[in-house]
Specification:
The strands form 3 sheets. The chain has a two-stranded antiparallel ribbon. Strands 3-4 form a two-stranded antiparallel sheet. β1 (about 25) and β2 (about 30-35) form a beta hairpin. The longest helix is centred in the first third of the chain and has 19 residues, at about 5-20. It has a single domain, classed as Homing Intron 3 (I-Ppo) Encoded Endonuclease, Chain A. The chain is globular. About 35% of the residues lie in helices and about 15% in strands. The chain is α+β, with helices and mostly antiparallel strands. It has helices at about 5-20, 55-60, 75-80, 115-130; strands spanning about 25, 30-35, 45-50, 70-75, 95-100, 110-115.
Length: about 150
């Protein structure tokens, strides 16, 4: 394994452990809920220390944001990104969508990357109480939604 690969694995493992340390199992026995900072939109957020990120991945994370040390990120997007094999930053045009409709859930199997348009149709599913289908994306997990 190259040193760069080792650095990436270390970065991924450290942040996975950090996320898990700040989460609890939900009442539904399925979702893993973030207990750290919750933003006004009711999503979990944390600061990503970019100095812990291998150098060549910093630009991919930051884009044109320059040489900042910390970047505020939504934890569900970070959790889903860390679960990618091999690790890579997702396309910036994609959003991390909650299949379970629980905004603080960080369990990667309850999340998917998709377009904002598809993500918005999921809100209709929640209002209607049934999944309307999102081909070719995964269906909603409405049975896991917490009130």
């Amino acid at each position: 394994m190259m040193a760069q690969d080792s650095n990436i694995c270390s970065f991924v493992d450290n942040y996975k452990q950090f996320l898990i340390s700040k989460a609890i199992l939900a009442e539904n026995g399925e979702c893993l809920l973030w207990t750290g900072y919750i933003d006004p939109g009711r999503y979990g957020k944390t600061s990503l220390d970019l100095h812990k990120l291998p150098y060549d991945l910093r630009a991919a994370c930051l884009g044109t944001a320059g040489s900042k040390r910390f970047k505020s990120v939504r934890v569900h997007r970070l959790a889903l990104t860390l679960a990618r094999e091999p690790f890579s930053w997702p396309d910036r045009s994609l959003v991390a969508s909650h299949l379970c409709h629980n905004k603080t859930c960080i369990l990667a199997t309850h999340l998917t990357f998709e377009s904002n348009a598809i993500n918005n149709t999921r809100k209709s599913c929640l209002r209607m109480g049934r999944c309307l289908g999102h081909h070719p994306y995964k269906d909603c997990m409405l049975n896991m939604h917490l009130p």
